[in-house]
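Cross-check.
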Amino acid sequence: MKVVVDTNVLVSGLVFGGVPGQILTAWTSGAFVLVVSPGILSEYRRVGRELAKGRPALDAALDALLALIAVHATVVDAPPLDVLVSADPDDEQFLAAALAGDAAWIVSGDKHLLAVSGWCGITVLKPRAFLDGPLASRNR
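Predicted model, tokenized:
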């Protein structure tokens, strides 16, 4: 199962744990393949660094997670989409990566991404819905 994880889900999982943290744990346990693009990796790094300012332990955890992603995620070349799909142009990179990486799922709480669920066969789910739905059924 190939999955794109929105930046807010990834960073929330690292900082706060909870359901997003369970999704990160599932990925590191091999429950799904994480699909990213260079642009998404850059956004993970930028947003993570902003939150880690003045928090050395969080900064170290971010470095470790980014190193894992660099080695174990599927990095795809995701050219810009020909048409604007989401109402938020910043979300387009997640759709482009899912399309380029043949990912069936995007995990996000972003309302603009959730609104385009189903585009090109890509389902966008909130973290809890992903954890309780596709991820849970895969682990049964």
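The chain has one domain: 5-138. The longest helix spans residues 56-72. Passed to J.P. for a second look.
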